[in-house]
Amino acid sequence: MTIYRGRQWRVKGIYILSLLFCCQSLLAQSPKSAEIKPFNGRPTLFVNGNPQTPTFYALTHAYGGRWSWEEVPARNLHNFCQIGFRLFQVDLWLEDIWAKNSDTLDIRKAQRQIRGVLDQCPDAGVVLRIHVNAPFWWNKAHPEECTQYADTPVDTSLRAGPPYHNEEHDIHAALRASLASTRWRQESGQKLVELCQKLSKTPEGNVLIGMHIAGGIYGEWHYWGFIEHDPDTGPAMTGYFRNWLRTKYKTTSAFQKAWQSTSVTFENATVPNVTERLKTQDGFFKDPVQDQRTIDYFTAQQQVVADDAIYFCRLAKENWPRPLVTGIFYGYLHMTFNRQTVGGHLFIQQVLDSPYIDYLSAPQTYWPDSRKAGGSGNSRGIIESTLLHGKLWFDEIDNGYLFKNDFENIRYTSRYDTTYANIMKRCALLPLMRGIGFWFYDFGPQKGFGWWDDPTYLAAMKAEKELFEKRLTVPYHSEADVLYVWSQDVFYYLKSAPLPITVNVLDHSIEQAMRSGAVGDHVYDFDLNRVNLAQYKAVVFMNVYKLTDAQRTFILKNVAKDGRTVVWNYLTGYTNGEQLNLSFVKSLTGMNLERIDGKQTPGVAFLKPAYDYNFSGSVEPLVVVNDKTAESLAELQGSKQVIIARKKTKAFTSLFCGLPLNGTDGFREIFRQAGCHIYNEQNDFTYANSGLLLLHTKDGGTRTLRLRSGKLVTIPLEHGSTLLLDAQTGEVVLK
Fold it and tell me: What is the C-alpha to C-alpha distance for residues 647 and 8, in angstroms, rounded to an integer?
């Protein structure tokens, strides 16, 4: 017994000494500060005044893998520290630190979550992803403040929290505080302030460099239940909507005129039902006159979500004693389930203009052709617009092990796979080349292992990070000569349901375009006046079916000139926000267009190169070209009606697509005719920026690349490989 006690006390003594040493090291650290500011032509993360390669490792939010102090998460934090990562992100919910019937927060779990990172990497900088959603007990206590759904009752049987994830059932008709609830916003805001004031005074708070403010579905500021359900008809949203209408219309007479009703008032206005939301007047399009009620509601719903995110970011910045980086998930366009008005991010311009938000982020696209081997790994946001507004963008890389995985967790089985390793290489290299950052979001620990807990994966990640650390001093410059232009506002005027054109353009055809061998930048329509248009030989208006009169004038004056090719992809500018009018499209294209019956599912026969493609359903309105001065590029299948045509004028080349353009070969030929540089004639993903050239292939084989200097470089590629080359010489920089 005596010996046992002695050993026991010796172990305790070692533990106490170790704890004291840990606390001393924490206290010894000077408080960190962080900001995002311009550096070498791009927004850059600075920590304590030093520019950083924007690469993080992040633990999952999922139950079983989210706590930093537990064995498997700790091991993976250690792994990434060992290969040079010093930036980390961890999750925390208000639910974790705000107990029922308690007036104050217990922040010990927040401290422990940060301390767990420091135990593995003592000089780490930490971003806390703080979920400001109301705790589940709060929702039960305040059902009148919760979301209600137009299509179904709230299902109070849906459970969340351990052993379920905290995000369990977010996409269903669950009991969740309305994002329009003033009470939730005030009380959660007060708790965020309290967290900032308390945590900033602790040793753990010294290493906090940022707060990622998370809310809504999966913390991504999507409205509750939006994929399958139609929020929010509850009292909180109804009250918000009525106040929003008062602010917009000011007088009852103006309001009644807009809604074409003499009985509606600010006191009795209601949220539209499902039938009204899905109603359209002209094929896919809502009429700005007849459908103003629905357009108003979706605008109000979008605004309240953006205002929430800005509000919480402002509180974090104003209540932290040092410069602190704040960011949110926002700005998704690609892979948003074709329900953008219901739960997307349409207030992107206002968010980009906010001084309280430093960065935006999103998981890389889930579109299968983009995500898997051979795909682009495209971001879900519009990157070059984000940079133009001085914001940094972070891709969340949650592209985990994709192959058969039926091993016993109690025994280690090697999980290294060459194809997957090259997918991960592409996932990391593309954002760094584009002037943005990423974090590896590791769901693996919840299964008993880290996704990248393998020395070969880790060695590759180390090499990638070291390369881009050296390149921090290399000025950023775009090498694109194609400009893709996108719209978020257009969704207010489209049916809020999956449409044959939306999924096609946003996910399918853009992936095909990005494998054309031409390099493109991506901006929103409202940023056209910010870009150097002289750089681009082709401008493609991808989904810009809504343009104001002023925007249309700007395009005709500034874009449609200098011999540039302008591609009008479907009905560019069909509405100006006040009416639907085909003459708006005619004024841009300079072609005679005719509307035809669009009830049949259409197909396109491209003439040169010759190939066909089809859509998933009927497309209305459907317009063909009836203009003898235009060159036919494609016809409707089964007819000689011209569906894609090109017309050259003295100022520019106009290319109108009555149906969205599909096909890598077609994009490539159009870009070639426009004078754009084609690096690669095969359908691999090829991207160039700031002197680097990225090549990612699924099939492999010999490739001949044409550099801008005219030099031809022949390279044998292995199946499923990723190469990084010097864009000037063609020499391999990273294999």
Answer: 87
